[in-house]
């Protein structure tokens, strides 16, 4: 101490020394207790409190930077909307079809194949090598170009698209996207209508999660990459996936605001291993009361650009290694017997067959086209009935007609064969198209309304993010103290709740920090744990925890996740919202 | 020999016995509650500095005139040393009677109106009485020497005008106002008196003021504006802050042990005086003591070792260290005062004297307290590293009146008796246990034994007390209840003239 300071203190200090009790006590806090394993037979007293810090309309703002600090699982689990891709894919296919030849030459072979498929018309298709090959000679015999005969069969002009982009896109989305497990269901809350916690995804739609926005869709190739149709069956078919790469653009200003009403404090419990007073995040148990859906501002979004852009998403469709012939029989109805229908829906041959079938069913009605010789004699007739079954009949000696078949079988075969023009081997005619700058228009009010509606139906989706924003778990409690608020209806009193899996502390990745390893969760009346006194009876809306009401003098027995057993003696209450326990390890 | 004449080496009247236990001195220390509930630090309202022996007063001609009235130094014909020690004991009792409505203390509802289910119906009415029995020593030393005979005398005084120690129960009902406190204020005073003639003398002095304060209490964060602002930052409408209603006060989790230690203040002040003697027997004194700006600098510590403060709300930006330490300052101004003293010798054996002092305590409207520590900062809540609090005091000007009769039964012995009154400075709104205050009645007995023509021994016993003061109008129910105060002081002095 400097001399000056000493002198300054000297006089008053002298008075202090002269007076009894002159100096006041220092404020001090005990050193933090280092958790140590509780020893057998040594009781320890702990006090647990039930303190509620009820925040109302507490707006939690989460910007992109903060979101990136949240566990990825939390973000990926927060589904926002199903975005219908039909229009986007159709536009892309239209553009691909219209690409100038010099630019098309720069495309990958698979993309060129796709473009070739889209540009197929009756006028430019070569029927040679297909079942319709006979149509060439028949047409010649009657003086009609084969293209015209084929166009008539399809009820289009000779230069019209054989398969319009819209049909292509819808088929891709229904079959290729729709058959992928990730596009069929998404995870959600378990309820009566969804006992497995799986929710259907809207047709032709991409489920967009908060993780997609935060991480610019980088997980699309993983989510829509190869996936088993039945993960539990090693022999199950594996969808090859269809997204090779994806990236997106999200405005940096993107911020989501969520208003919550909750008790922001954790429940206080005990880690029996060390008698450490641990904290259990209380968010999940309150999730149904956390959001005031009657408040139009309960969730809002700022910085959302008018459109969200997936800068690139490449879709590739694989071709089967074998040539898949068209069918030649009506049965089985309604598609016929082409082996294409037995293929997985993601293979090119199956897709092209489906495109042709849709083209037939949706646009081609039953009709017959007659072709006459110069003598006005009908030389042959091509008829398509209302099921798409196509028959061609010759009435003179003009040649052999193609065998009867469904029109889609004939058309898909043409497409298959023509894709291999130029020497492509079977299996090499994969098709591919890249969706670039897929613009997902974001009408902010509309999308926020949709997000709200989705989340109102499934507030549990926000458990993860809310827990993270209100991350107050500490330690690994085996049980905790709960006292219903005095404003609650129903049972009052002091309860001990045995933790459930949902109560486990989460690690930095949002995953449980420890396994739920309890063999005998709950509270028992006897040391052998044969007489359970706890139940999952509904207390203040909770029907998932093993719980028991306690009063001073009660004695309970519990087992932790290390199979150690403990005796809990309930002591006199220190105050209205506190309980005291004496904990003794017995085994 | 007249017992009261200025020139005689006879005993002086006893204007103020050592009155060391000036509880007003506690007020500034308690104001450091600043961090705490504004308004929790209350003035005693009794300020009559105990400076000298009971034989010293505004018309007395002794070395202690450097404090009471430096003009009287001019009448000293010889050098004089006056030194003494004293001991003060007190009995201070408080029966708190809550008139407000409180929620159950182990809950945490922070916005009114509070749901009735959270109201603690038992927390109302009388609480157990708390008491403190402070014991405080004191001492003083005065020296005067005529440097120009019959014209100019210089004086020096070292004295302790305020000293008090309180120890209330740590768990008593007063714990939000004060648990323990210690205050001592000393002054080193230089003065000079100039005798113009037998009828008029003038004097002046300058004093260095050194203050020392320590305090502990429970800090109620419900009354802290910064805490209220922090919750507002989180969008949580709350009733906290200096005007917090009783419904949100005195909650267990927000009541944190707080201490101020080693708080030192330095100040400078001055006084002037004039004495007029219309006759040889009749003395009139008029003095003015200037105000003193005090700024205590010390160390504070606050126990925030509760999960609520240390980890449960960390995700929302509230995370203190379990024990926060830092620097604290307390600023206030000791008020100026003006005193009119009268003395009259009735024959050779009797003298009567007295004074009226008017103290401008209304100048003291608030205490300004700041606490600084990097560990206080909670950026997410908009709380910086410094908390500044103004504590409204709203004190009133006070009057102190004393009258003494002095009798010399023998040539070597003088006895005196004093009666007095002090009005309270604290209004009902701001009183609390840190400074029990009321209409104070003072009584004192004194005696002087002249051992030799040069040496005298002085003895004093002084008592004061307030009639039980029942308070019902305390702001926020902080200080409602009944206050009782009794203080006894004894002092002994040695006076030597040369």
Considering the chains and any ligands shown, give keywords for the structure.
heterodimer; A: 587 residues; alpha+beta; five-stranded antiparallel β-sheet; four-stranded antiparallel β-sheet; 24% strand; elongated; B: 498 residues; mainly beta; Porin; 14-stranded antiparallel beta barrel; 4 helices; 49% strand
In the residues of chain B, how many domains can be counted? Answer: 1
Q: Strand content of the residues of chain B, in percent?
A: over 45%
Percentage of residues in helical conformation of chain B: under 10%
Straight-line N-to-C gap of chain B? 19 Å
Q: Reading side by side through the largest sheet of chain B, how are the strands ordered?
A: 1-4-5-6-7-8-9-12-13-16-17-18-19-20
CATH architect. name of chain B = Beta Barrel
Q: Hey, roughly how much beta strand do the residues of chain A contain?
A: 15-25%
Low-confidence region ranges of chain B: 1-49
Give the proportion of residues in helices of chain A. Answer: 25-40%
Would you tell me the overall average pLDDT of chain B? Answer: 86
Kindly report the name of the CATH homologous superfamily of chain B. Outer membrane protein transport protein (OMPP1/FadL/TodX)
Biggest sheet descriptor of chain B = 14 strands, antiparallel, barrel
Shape of chain A: elongated
CATH topology of chain B: Porin
Q: Identify the biggest protein-protein contact and residues per side.
A: A-B, 48 and 59 residues
Structural class of chain B: mainly beta
Oligomer: heterodimer
Protein name (chain A): Acetyltransferase
Organism (chain A): Nannocystis pusilla
Keywords (chain A): Signal
Signal peptide (chain A): 1-24
